[in-house]
Description:
Helices cover 78% and strands 0% of the residues. By secondary structure, the chain is mostly helical. It has one domain (54-424). Helix 3 (39-51) packs across helix 13, helix 5 packs across helix 6 and helix 10 crosses helix 21 (416-424). It is globular, with a radius of gyration of 22 Å. 48% of the residues are buried. The model has no long low-confidence stretch (mean pLDDT 83).
Amino acid sequence: MGLTVLGLVFVLGALLGVPMGLAMLAAGFGYLMATHQDVGLVVDQTMNGLYNNYLLLAVPLFIFVANVMNASGVLERLLAFAQAGVGRFRGGLAHVNIVANLVFSGMSGSAVADVAGPGLIVARMMVKGGRYPAGFAAATSAAAATLGPLVPPSIPMIFYALIANTSVGALFLAGVVPALGTALALMAAIAVIARRRGFPAEAPVGWRALLPIFWRALPPLALPGILLGIIYSGIATPTEAAAIAATYALVLAICVYRSLSLAQLYAVIIETVRQTAAIGLIMSGAFVFNYAVANEGVPDAIRATLVGWQLKPVAFLLAVNVLLLVLAIAIDEITILLVIVPLLVPVAAGLGIDLVHFGVVIMLNMMVGLALPPHGLLLFVISGLTGTSIGAIFREIPVFIGTMIAVLLAVTLLPGIALMLPRMFGYAGG
């Protein structure tokens, strides 16, 4: 009866268009009442377990960093740097889109922030004068923004670290090589498309002009390096590093560039609070929902079923890929991460799969899901921002989806790709 009520309320809420966090909360409360449990006690314990976690303070801080960078004109410097570096190749602006998003991901930790920042700006540049089809420009921006979950500091990685009880530092390191590999694979796909469709190259920037462009972009480019350096040197925890990054972004915007007014700062704070509250609502709903699922023994049943199948680790990982990609068609990625992944982590650990490697596989699935029709969040975000029809984007996105799935399979089958840097820094076993 409890599980039936849980499922029916959740599905009903989703069908009525209720925000996912509220739908999960309603389902959780319905379950507690149907099973005659103390609603107040369970919710109190769940909320205390969620909001007393020190690591979660990093989430609003990284959101704040992204919003400050978006509002302070830093993007213009980063785009100039990316265009000087890769704009000279055929399909130059599409390459710029990938590089700019890769760099900006190291400041935002959020795919949505990336597509609304550099993704939107470059997409508008691409369609000027009809140089690129609007659908291709928007699809490139969506694909480029998917790098967000992999590049440190990644907000989804922080959530996964809480779920799997793994090191945030190890996860951040593990995402670097797959992120770079994905960026290069996407650029290779763009190079092939650009040659076939005759997309233009940008005017090359001379070597003398390149140094001043790099110098102007150096302060924001240094932020990811500073962030990782203070974490891996032991100077600060990830949460303390997030606070340092927020301070650095503020000093850069207000004192160095002098491009952030008090009115803009107020708007940044309001937007940060709004985004944090939205994430907090989803997490609250997920914790209550997960309590109900765990209390009914669903994780144990799934674990026993999979153990009964006697799956090998590789077969399990491939099955997880298929499951998550199918779920991504109908469920958003944060819900999958907070509701489905907790059921899979114990099974992965029981099969001897490195949970850092498993986390990177999960992040890669999230990347694909963010751009996977028909539910891919980034496709609808960039469609709304640019005014491009969703059908035009759907027609252009498959080649990027195929490229990302190829990287996903490579990382799934070759754990060393993800574990190379963690092992080098002593985070993971050989």
